[in-house]
Specification:
Helix content: 40-55%
Largest sheet: 2 strands, parallel
Number of domains: 2
Oligomer: single chain
Radius of gyration: 32 Å
Strand order of the largest sheet: 1-2
Order of helices and strands: HEHHEHHHHHHHHH
């Protein structure tokens, strides 16, 4: 018998009028899902509980033997194959108006609506984001803890987010907010910019130790576009960013934070 809640309930309804049959009569219910068998024989689950309780009640009043058996799926067993075909047809059919909502179904709908809500909020916020931040093309995923919070120290995380947003220890930022005592230039003499860490001639001296994406050949970035592409790799891989800072010591020795 199919383990869908509606069919379980219908099977239980069918068995009640037949309970006066001879005691030797046996009723066999087969399922390919061990969890369903456990719910039929033991404690009904929270979802579809009404169907499992209806089955258990019918089994208690049955004048005969009721057996619940596990049946391996996708093994060429004809009743199972028929059940699978009927289930596939059921997914294409219109919704049964008599079907009761299940806890699992309600949870699924809530998750679906939450995903839609998060997507709509993100799309609305994208219009307000800076062109620089959108250029990173970062994924929006609230299901997982951001990796940068796990692998970066707090000073490294501050630098990481400053590069992404363009707000931090940079020359244009200090000039805009009139930080008169701030150091505007890197140790190499060039102005501090969010992209400068991969363009600085002093940090490029340790290029042989830079983390490198994939298994491809290590080719020193020459053009500005190639350097920006490498920075995009660092912004998408916090662990690589951490390794880059450690091997170049860019913020520790080359371009330390100025006074603000």
């Amino acid at each position: 018998m199919s383990s869908t809640p509606r069919l379980l309930e219908r099977g239980a309804d069918w068995s009640v009028p037949c309970k006066r049959r001879p005691p030797a009569l046996r009723s066999l219910y087969a399922s390919t899902t061990p969890d369903v068998i456990w719910c039929l024989r033991r404690t009904a689950s929270e979802t579809s509980q009404w169907a499992f309780l209806a089955f258990q009640k019918a089994a208690d009043t049955w004048h005969g033997t009721v057996r619940v058996k596990w049946s391996p799926g996708h093994m060429g067993i004809e009743p199972n194959e028929i059940a699978d075909r009927l289930a596939n047809l059921g997914t294409k059919a219109s919704r049964d108006p008599d079907t009761r909502p299940t806890l699992a179904g309600v949870r699924s709908q809530v998750r679906k609506r939450l995903r839609g809500l998060r997507t709509n909020i993100w799309r609305a916020m994208e219009d307000k984001m800076s062109r620089r931040y959108k250029s990173w093309d970062l994924p929006y995923d609230t299901r997982h803890h951001p990796e940068e919070l796990e692998v970066l120290t707090r000073p490294q995380l501050q630098r990481f987010l400053a590069i992404r947003t363009g707000h931090g220890d940079f020359a244009w930022y200090h000039r805009r907010y009139k930080h008169d005592e701030a150091e505007l230039r890197c140790g190499c003499g060039r102005p501090k910019t969010p992209d400068h860490l991969v363009m600085c001639r002093q940090s490029r001296r340790s290029f042989g130790k830079w983390p490198w994406p994939g298994e491809g050949p290590r080719i020193r970035p020459q053009t500005r576009a190639e350097k920006k592409e490498y920075l995009r790799f660092l912004m998408g891989d916090p662990l690589a960013f951490k390794e880059f800072l450690e091997v170049t010591r860019f913020y520790a020795d080359i371009c330390p934070r100025g006074h603000t």
